[in-house]
Write a structure and sequence with these properties.
heterodimer; A: alpha+beta; six-stranded antiparallel β-sheet; two-stranded antiparallel sheet; B: mainly alpha; 8 helices; 70% helix; globular
Chain lengths: 233, 171
């Protein structure tokens, strides 16, 4: 290495160009810069963007169309009725009764409003407390709902609708004492379904577990034996 | 992001930019960071580059401005943080301190002398003599008139010559 003292500007300039060490960029730096230049989208598969765009469009369309799409209704009349009474039970569970009445005091008024009379009614006991009774309108029919609450806090709804030709499905029937109601499940709720004279009776609750179901059978017996609904007109 | 042609042209100057960054920072990791930041900025603002002008000068200008903005600021902040008051108020044309911390070791007297030059002198010599840039391009990089570049080159060589003489005497 020549470290002599230069005399002129030209010599010093030449010496700088020739002797000053040049540093070369490491390969890792070149790779890092090149990677930084690649837009993030170019590393995606070519089909991904159109697919995501199409999926997003479909989702937006579905969100707008959902309210106007025909809802899937159960074809079986029993299932339709169960869905309706479960909805009524859910409404009562969340917001309470619309026309809270006490039985048997309000029975004449309830009969007038619902078209269903109760010649006798279960008014509650040590396990199942009466909450309220009210007329309801389900599946374009007037009916009657009586709500109870058990000692564990479960709301139990007893709902009666006119249904002279309702066929209780044999496959779902369960023997309880001398009765054979059908057990139907819908939307996380469970319902006893039976016919009594010319009305359809339902008992709905959220007691779906095996233990709860045994108690729910007991509640059914209590209500069934003590209540006599009939079409009033 | 910049178009591929611009990126390819810009990447041709990677080694020259890295060499310049090494003489500015005297520290390989910092030189890496400085060059990466330079390219990121160049690609982000590629629409501001006027085609037909000198891409090399534009890139060097970005690198130097980035260095002056961030690296000098950081050095000053570090100096202030020591005892709470600024203790390194280096005038523009003063020599760089001998203590270089974790910087790379100089291999020759010439390199050692270059490192001691203030940034303005070091830069004009690197651009004009080492990179062989025309004075107009150097003036663009340094954002000053060509006459100022000529003056700085002259003074930088004077300072460099003096340092080399000192080293020669020490031997």
């Amino acid at each position: 290495m020549n470290d002599r003292t230069p005399d002129s500007d030209e010599q010093l300039g030449r010496r700088l160009a020739a002797e000053l060490p040049r540093y070369t960029a490491p390969a890792s730096l070149r790779i890092a810069v090149v990677q930084a230049t690649e837009p993030a989208t170019s590393r995606r598969p070519a089909w991904l963007s159109p697919l995501l765009a199409a999926a997003a469009t479909a989702m937006v369309l579905a969100m707008f169309m959902l309210p106007v799409l025909p809802r899937l209704q159960p074809s079986d009349p029993v299932d339709q009725m169960v869905r309706a009474v479960v909805s009524e039970h859910s409404r009562a569970l969340m917001w309470g009764s619309r026309q809270s009445q006490v039985i048997p005091t309000a029975l004449p008024w309830l009969q007038e409003q619902s078209g269903i009379g109760l010649s006798s009614a279960f008014v509650g006991d040590d396990r199942l407390n009466f909450v309220s009774a009210e007329p309801v309108y389900l599946l374009r029919q007037r009916g009657l709902a009586v709500h109870y609450r058990d000692v564990d806090g479960h709301l139990v709804s007893y709902i009666v609708l006119p249904a002279e030709d309702l066929k209780v499905p044999d496959r779902a029937r369960v023997q309880i004492d001398r009765f054979r109601p059908a057990l139907v499940k819908d939307s996380g709720f469970v319902a006893w379904v039976w016919r009594q004279h010319n009305v359809a009776c339902f008992m709905v609750s959220d007691m779906v577990s095996a233990d709860d179901l045994e108690r729910f059978k007991d509640y059914f017996v209590r209500v069934r034996t003590a209540t006599e609904p009939v079409l009033a007109y | 992001m910049a178009d591929p042609d611009f990126q390819r042209d810009a990447l041709q100057h990677l080694n020259a930019l890295y060499n310049f960054a090494m003489y500015l920072t005297r520290n390989p990791p910092e030189a890496d960071d400085l060059v990466q930041e330079t390219y990121l900025r160049a690609f982000r603002f590629s629409h501001r580059f006027q085609p037909g002008t000198h891409l090399r000068a534009w890139l060097f200008q970005i690198l130097r401005n980035t260095f002056l903005t961030f690296y000098r600021l950081r050095e000053r902040e570090a100096a202030i943080a020591e005892d709470g008051v600024p203790d390194w108020d280096t005038p523009m044309f003063h020599d760089t301190p001998l203590d270089e911390g974790g910087a790379m070791e100089a291999h020759t007297d010439l390199e050692r002398a270059m490192r001691r030059l203030p940034e303005e002198f070091r830069t004009v010599l690197l651009l004009a003599e080492v990179e062989g840039m025309p004075l107009e391009e150097v003036a663009r990089v340094m954002a000053c008139p060509v006459g100022t570049v000529k003056s700085r080159i002259f003074r930088a060589k004077e300072r460099l010559r003096g340092l080399l003489k000192d080293y020669e005497k020490q031997k």
